[in-house]
UniProtKB/TrEMBL annotation:
InterPro entries: Acyl_CoA_acyltransferase, BioF2-like_GNAT_dom. Residues 372-401 are annotated as: Disordered. Keywords: Transferase. GO terms for molecular function: transferase activity. The keyword Lipoprotein does not apply. The keyword Lyase does not apply. It holds the Pfam family Acetyltransf_6. Residues 373-388 have a biased composition (Low complexity). Residues 188-326 form the BioF2-like acetyltransferase domain. SUPFAM superfamilies: Acyl-CoA N-acyltransferases (Nat). This is GNAT family N-acetyltransferase.
Amino acid sequence: MDETTRTTRRYEVISGEAEFRALQPEWDALWLKAQGYCYQSFAFCWLAWKHVSKPHGRRLKCIVCREDGKLVLVWPLETVRRSLWVYLVPLGPQGGDFTSMLIEADAVAEARVAGAWDMARRRCRADFIHLPYVRERLELHRLVMRERRILFSEAHNASAARLRGQGSWDAYCQTLGTLFGKRPGGFAKKLSREGTVAVRTLDPAEEAETASIIEWMFRCKRAWSERVGKRSVWLDLPEFERFLGKLIYSGEVPSMARLIVVTLDEAPVAAIIASVGNPWASAIFAGFDPHYGKSCPGLIAVEQCVKWAFDSGYDLDFGVGTEDFKAYWSRGEASTAWTVQTINSIWGLAAVRARRMTRDLIGRVKNLRQSGAAAPHAQEPGAAAAPAMRSSRETGVAHPE
């Protein structure tokens, strides 16, 4: 049902910052009731808009649904212009968060989601819709995968640790095996041979120290990414670094994250940022000193993050990825999330066809050049002319692209 056939259910695309800010009280109430994830909260989205999206010239496209005037769905989106085309993407820093709508699960939830998806397609004026990490179990995934013009789709492994109701921390750890030959606490014991190991969760209001540790984490993360050949655009964005700090403490919205630091002789060797839970917390960002890599300080930080979530009464979402520690702490429980991009306009379809034609043309030119370069060798003394000519024709037919 859409806004024209069901008078009590109305959808709207919020594009103004003032209207977006005014949603906070209702949005907060829905987030608590629907047990939303951190990236679905108003605080997260407001900070992402203010410190990442708006400075980069993106346009706000937040879809909301009301029934009898009551807010029942929020889907924060934004548009990004790339050359001559417009992409619709989830509002946020694009650092690995899932894509989903904030909605309370009830008998008509699927109808609301379908209406919001229809609004995204029709009213946001995008040539492409790019949705990273849509959980396979969601109605949104089913709707997107039914689209006729899917440009690409990619599956990702996702892990989460269910920690609530596990009794004591020691009892929970007894249900785990070993990670790289170590049980919980083993990596900290190994690092303690180098000096005094301590763990601290920073007070959110300690802004200066928080900013200093986050800057250090980014330096470590950049060094790691260069070493393993995995470079992400957001690693070089000062806006994303600032956003993480504001997520911990901003003064204008509630604190949505905590910074856990592992130190060796009072110097940081690893740190991790995790969101508060509702009841799901999320591991957001981590970094470690590669100098102590053999002692695995990063795994100590992860363990301390899991323990913090356990003690706080949260479950912990590790996001996508196939890292061993994610499978270990989630006890092998995994799900699938999909990154999907659809073509949403004739202009977008024209762009795809033009790219394909250009790629095909370049491929054919390369093949012709390779064939032309091979022909003189066929005429050298002792070479048979007929096989060389046949080889040239076969190359042109077998590799047209």
